[in-house]
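One such given next:
>
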Amino acid sequence: MASKFTELAIDCVDPDALARFWCAVLGYEVQEAEDGFISIGSPLEADGAQRVGSVPPTLGFARVPEGKAIKNRLHIDVNPTDREQDEEVRRLLGLGARHADVGQTGDESWVILADPEGNEFCVLATRRP
């Protein structure tokens, strides 16, 4: 058996705000909250320990004193499930995302946004249920 991708840890200045943002983006809920750390995940899936196959990963937000300084080396891609890409981009901008420039040419099929702490992520064009 191979390992499963189950969690992505994200350093941030404000775990509460970033957790609220990503809960709204992904339809997740808070699973654990401690001083300086919040974990969010799908309300429809258990932790996946006994499940064969992939599970929706949880996101863990850990408070650190420093802000983001450079482009992410790892980022999240999201797929709109019930609307078109442009509608989803507008929704995410309304939640606090902003457009990000990481050197794209303008010919990409995805849109690059940044969350409230500046972490880049992509909104893909293909809708997936």
In short: The CA atoms of residues 23 and 29 lie 6 Å apart. The longest strand covers residues 7-12.
